[in-house]
Amino acid sequence: MLYTKMLGRGVLLLAVHLCVAVVSVQSQGSQQDNFMIQYLERRLAQIEERLGQCEQHSMTATQKIYDLSSEVRGHMSTLSDFRSEIKTQVDSVSSRVERVEREMEYLENKIPTQSDIEMEEALLEQQIRDMEQELKQKAKIKMENDCNTVLSQIKSLKIVKKAGDTSGSWFKDPSKGSNKVYLMSGIRNNTVLEYVSLTSFTEKSLTPAAKALQLPFHWQGTGQVVYNGFLYVHKADTPNEILKVDLLNGTVVDSTLLPGAGHMPVYSLNPNTYMDFAVDELGLWVIHADSEYEGNLVITKLDKASLAVDYAWDTQCKSRDAEGAFIICGTLYVVYNTRYGGRSTVQCLFDIHDTIHSNESPVMFFPKRYTSHSSIHYNPKDKQLYAWDDGYQTIYKVETQNNEEVTAQ
Q: Residue ranges of the chain with pLDDT lower than 70?
């Protein structure tokens, strides 16, 4: 019995000791777990902080790369502008060099070669005087006896017909013995309508009164003219190529490139016309705008047979707000308007003989008609202006006076 009690008491003590041991072990394990958790939490906090720093550095680097890319794009755009500007300047210099070469060639053909002759001083002086006189005649084309008048008034308006597109040109051949009328509709086409007379052009008939001439090319703009049975046009898809076309068979008989032309429209209000041809008492002309000369107009006298350049004059008349121009007796008259349309006025003129000037001539108004011209051509034969006015073919009668009277005033 006693042994049994002692044995039970021992077992109980052993169980108590085991429980205490287990509790102690569990207590120690819990402390270690808490320590590990706290350690891991600290490490995670450090990692999160470093990740935040990396993200901030990445955003900063991305912004710097974007700013650098924007700066590079700006420099590339500037370089592209510089490249375009340099290309334009090179093209302009090339055109001017070509013009100088043609002028030098002209002078070389005119200067007699006397390399094998022993020239005396008096003969040399005489040749110099002759050359100076020749250059003066070249700079001022000799005025014909019947070409001593200037424009004084645009008197009246006559609406002849309405045909074709809103833009186009129509005119008569001013050659002696010719009464033919020509109509060229649009700003790019290859069909020329030929009428035997103005009466045939105006009559309303069921049968076509016009002869349609199909050209083997397209023209550009509204600046064409017919002179002595030949059509002079700016060939489409070329900057400055002039064609001379025989209207009897529609074949091209000659062509040339006009130096300095084709870089900008000759009139800002007619953006599709880069060369405007004109015929007056002195012959064949072409008008264009020079982008290197502040957009001012240039008039060039052409030989109607060979298309060779006789001479070119830089004028002070602006291309800006101009809608057209015409030449009478070697004097350029520039017609201005607004881009909204309105009453046309002549506000600038240039006389190759230097006898009249813009500041001495009053502003001349066209008869009231609130639209804008796409072409204006002077006919030296009947002294009238043939204009294309929003699809209407119109004629303006003009008054002139003696050039000496203007000079005296």
A: 1-29, 106-122, 124-125, 127-146, 205-208, 370, 403-409
Q: How many CB atoms lie within 10 A of CB 312?
A: 19
Which pLDDT does position 144 carry in this prediction? 46
Query: What are the CB-based long-range contacts (under 8 Å, 24+) for 19-28?
Result: none
Give the Cα separation of 124 and 116 in Å (integer).
14
d(CA 381, CA 183) in angstroms, rounded, equals 18
Identity of the residue numbered 49: E
Exposure string over 151-188, b if 16+ CB within 10 A, otherwise e: bbebeebeebbebbeebbbbbbbbeeebebbbbbbbbe
Token look-up 């015929």 returns 279
177 torsion bin: left (phi>0), alpha (psi -120 to 50), beta (else)? left
Angle, CA 240 vertex, CA 325 and CA 138 arms, to 5°: 65
- Give pLDDT, residue 57: 87
**Cα separations (Å) of 54 from 41, 46, 50, 71, 409?**
20, 12, 6, 26, 87
SS3 content of the chain, % helix, strand, coil (to 5): 35, 35, 30
Using an 8 Å Cβ cutoff, are 352 and 329 in contact? Answer: no
Digit-coded pLDDT (tens) for 123-147: 766 766 666 555 555 445 554 445 7
DSSP 356: -
Q: Residue 121's pLDDT is what?
A: 66
CB atoms within 10 A of CB 368: 9
Compute the distance between CA of residue 281 and CA of residue 353 in angstroms, rounded to an integer: 14
Distances 301 to 2, 78, 244, 286, 298 between C-alpha atoms, Å: 152, 40, 15, 7, 10
What pTM value is reported for the model?
A: 0.66
Query: 260-296 burial, b for 16+ CB within 10 Å, e for fewer?
Result: bbbbbbbbbbbeebbbbbbbbbbbbbbbbbbbbeebb
Instruction: Determine the pLDDT at residue 2.
Output: 40
Nearest CA-CA partner of 258 in 250, 247, 267, 266: 266
Measured in whole angstroms, the distance separating CA 349 from the mean position of its chain's CA atoms is 22
Looking at this protein, which amino acid is placed at residue 46? Q
DSSP 220: E
